[in-house]
Amino acid sequence: MVKSRLFSRRVPIMHACWLALVMVAVVHAADKPAEPVKTREVKIKDISLTVPESWQQQKPSNRLRLAQFAIPAVKGDKSGVQLVVFSFGGSSIQANVDRWKAQFRRDGRKVKVTEGKSPQGKYVIVDLSGTYNQPVGPPFMRKTKLLPDARMLAVILIVKGKGVYYLKMAGGGKTVTSAAKLFRASFGGDAEKEKEFKADN
User: Fold this and answer.
1) Three-state helix/strand/coil letters over 178-200
2) Strands of 81-86's sheet, edge to edge?
3) C-alpha pair distances (Å), 83 with each of 13, 44, 175
4) pLDDT per residue over 142-186, tens digit each?
5) Maximum alpha-carbon separation in the chain
6) CATH architecture of 39-196
7) Nearest of 110, 113, 84 to residue 96 by alpha carbon
8) What does the alpha-carbon distance between residue 120 and residue 187 come to, in Å, rounded to a whole number?
9) SS3 string of 30-71?
10) Which is it for the CA torsion 182, 184, 189, 190, positive or negative?
């Protein structure tokens, strides 16, 4: 009887110790920083982008593009997305924002437009999600297909005395979301310091 009572007292104590060890392990796992992403710097005329090595730089598919990168798809998306870089003038910031908004169907469309400052210059970033009229084939054909659960991140980067650069990443929502922080970091953007964009600025 004595041994039985002693054993019954030890079991809760042993269980509590085991639970404490598990909790400590979980805390340490949560505190463990994510493995750093290997990046490389790519010079594109007057700007530099710091992109992950997994973003494959490709030959631009048309003469309007200064650069383009293929970003691998994540689980849940059928195909990867492209990051493309342009530079051309002649249109206002609001005109470009409206043009990008028009590439998504109004039903269920969500849009957020903010502005900030990077080491390379001021920028405006447009965050769109919903059903995307995804371009298919050469731009002059103007053919599109509907892509539900899509997302677009598009940036207007104003480099003082140099020009305006446009960075656009659009496609499967899960893949764009997984690359969003790295996309912002590529040109030096900081989401925490951004504020709502106002067209009359």
Assistant:
1) HHHHHHHHHHCCCHHHCEECCCC
2) 56-58, 67-71, 81-86, 163-172, 143-159, 121-136, 110-118, 195-196
3) 57, 13, 12
4) 788 999 999 999 999 999 999 999 999 999 999 999 999 999 999
5) 92
6) 3-Layer(aba) Sandwich (3.40)
7) 113
8) 7
9) HHCCCCCCCEEEEEECCEEEEEECCCEEECCCCCCCCEEEEE
10) negative
